[in-house]
Amino acid sequence: MKTTTTLRTLRALALAGAALAALVLSSGCDRTSPSETPPDAEMAASFAASAQSAATVNENLQLAELFADPMGSATADLGLTEDPNFDPWTGDGVDFPQLVVINAEAYRAIRDLQQPLAADVATSKRATADLPNIADGNPFDRAEGDTLFVEYFDAADSTGLNAVIEAAGVNMVRFVSIRDYPNAVLFQPSHRESELLIDTNGTLEDDSDDSYYSMHLSETLANGQMSTGDIAPYGGEGPITPTTVVETTLRIDQPMFHPLQSWLETRVDMELGDLSADGDETFYRFQNTVHWVNDAEQVAVVEPVDEGPIVDDAEVTLSATFTADPNNPWLESVLDTIRVNMGQLDDDNDDLLLELARTSTFDGVTQDGGSPRAIVSFVPENPIQAGQEPCGGEFTENVYYAAGWWVQHLYRHLDINCDGSGQADAEYTFIDGSSIERHITWDGAGQATLSETRLDGTTVAGTFNENTGEYSVLTTFAAGSDPESREQSGTMLPGSATCRDEFFWADEHPDYTTFTATENGDSWTVTGQNVDGALAENFSLNGTPDELVGDWSRQDEGVDASGHYTLTALDAGGAHLVFDAQDTLAEGEPSVEGDFWYAPDGSGHGTLAYTQFGRTTVFNVTWDGNGEGQLSDGAGNTAPLG
To answer: Which of 226, 274, 331, 581 is least surrounded, with the fewest CB atoms within 10 Å of its CB?
Structure first.
């Protein structure tokens, strides 16, 4: 497994553990009780150690990842290194491999539509050829809707009819075919209808000069799936010839094997070629739409960058717009746009990525009146295939957070060359107008350096050795601060990590966190110790690369605390945490349920429902990027967080 996957997993897991512990700390600090029992300071201190431990793990892993694999960190969030298996429309946007497969999926769907329509064309030729008596009549004696010919069927497996019906316009007729299959089961058709709009060119008995203007097919399966397909010239005028660009659509309602989907539709703009032949089609545009039962919707489009058909080695744009369901509490939409070279059209594995962008829009309002949003773009130094990690490229990210959040804007720019050299710049702008700027350079020979400056005079300097995985970062706080400095160091290698984070105080009391992270198959375990003066606590965190769901527990003298949490990673590095926790041995058996939103710098907000002695109080919680904040119940009762 790649180091990138390792760090992303551990970072998300650590964030979840930190949030859970911090929230339990919040409840322990402000004990809402009908009695006069004071808060349990020992419990609060213990939970504070848990919160500090997990938060420290999170911060150090983020720092190590930034040093060790900047390009992998940037591209992993964009789906470039994901498994290319097609698992459509999960609701978190669409990655590059998924969009590539849309080409093949749409092509197969339209091919399935062409086959029965080709059979109807052959049947219509036979039916119109059986009408020589009508050809001798006066066409002006016929009116639109008149039945010119009808043929009924009553077979062992089906009943139905074929009919030729007068249509609007000189020499225009509709060929209609209807079938019912009363004994159909499961995946067999129970009802089928088709219609062809034909220009007979005045000779019904001669099918060789017939022209087709539109084609329609509908089919209902015994299990309830309904399919509707249409083929008509692009723009709606003129007959269909082998070189006519047509709009071909296929809609499926209540699709089998997809109970969460309401309907899906494929549209392809193409030249059909010979309906009876395979492989002579020419494609201009693909569009797939999936509509979910919860009213979420995904629309994916494949079209050439320049006007013209999609041919071998064509440069095309693949885009997918996901609109979240109305009840989604945070996400409005995600737009992915990818520019690729398609390679050979019959080969899904040779497509090359040229450029990638994603815009995620969230509920809420930013300080400038817009919507909270995250905008990222990436141009690799060299074109890459799906599933490959680029050796270099240019990555840009702009994130605008909701009004009231401590961090208001994040800007990141990463420019890495394939020889390993490059630089990264980041700037956080906060609600009070202050900012933090970070600059990292890689020399291409295995060394990286970090420098950071803050408005209060705090400076940060660090180094990283790519050959050994060792890193060291020294933070020197502004004059007069206590703590005076902080040192973060460790070794980050694929499959393992060892880190130490130590604060130095004026009174020289010990204050440090150490931990190790190891891989065990598909899961990871983080274990360590946090020491704060006389208080020492062991901690552990567990998780898998695919699941951000976990349990937290701690047993000690007079303490039996545990909790469960679900973490959803958000675009732009934030997270949404839903959790619960309780302590069965503490007075009044306190428990909490929380819902929190995190920004990448650690600031955030949320709600906490705290229950003790059977009484529940709901608190609003906010904190800034320095770890300081407060908990308030809206009635004047507050407690500090930090």
So the answer is: 274
